[in-house]
Amino acid sequence: MTPTDLRVFLASWFRSPLSVGALVPSGRLLAQALAAQVDPRQEGAVLELGPGTGAVTQALLARGVEPTRLVLLERDPAFCRLLRNKLPAVRVLQADARYLHRALADFGIKELDAVVSSLPLLSLPFTAQHQVVKQSFRALGPQGIFVQFTYGFSSPIRPELQHRLALKGRPVMRVIRNLPPAVVWRYARSEPAAARLAA
Predict the structure, then answer these.
(1) Mean pLDDT computed over 44-50
(2) What span, in angstroms and rounded, lies between the C-alpha atoms of 55 and 100?
């Protein structure tokens, strides 16, 4: 992390710690574990939620995801300015993830291959988590995936929400050498998902 990244991160954290969620930006190994879930050979857009200083973004680029495929959705204006300066070839949208469908529509983005989230989902109220996850899957193609990490032991998407939206999730990687240790989860639609998500 550069001194500029650290300065912006700390300023944003002190201004709104619950919005930032993490005590430190995602470590390199965690960023790589998240990026490993995305297939760089696909052609559709990849949406990153809560990119912060861009640690996961850079891991996605290093994995071979084309910059033109990446869309970063960030609410904090300071992080948005930082990301636009660091990554001019990547689209950065300043918006609340609860209204991501509207933000994507404004930019003409109709379908996603993957959503990679660094949002603090467990700290969100149920209604807010519902909005983020439901809108993400509405934007994802039939085989699209939602990737999320957590510092906890259980699913970062609440079981009742998985049932309501007909999703299936599983832990795919444990990153012990992160501070704090983290688990990467991967979610996809189960068979009757289309009907429930359309409701």
Answers:
(1) 97
(2) 21
Q: What is the pLDDT of residue 195?
A: 47
Selection from 31, 38, 88, 44 nearest residue 64 by Cα = 38
3-198 sits in which CATH class? alpha beta
| pLDDT tens digits for range 104-154 | 999 899 899 999 999 999 999 999 999 999 999 999 999 999 999 999 889
Q: Which of 62, 155, 71 has its CA nearest to residue 114?
A: 71
Give residue 124's region: left, alpha or beta (phi > 0; psi -120 to 50).
Answer: beta
163: amino acid identity, one letter: H
Element containing residue 102 per DSSP (H, E): helix 100-106
CA torsion sign for 124, 128, 134, 140 is negative
Domain ranges of the chain: 3-198
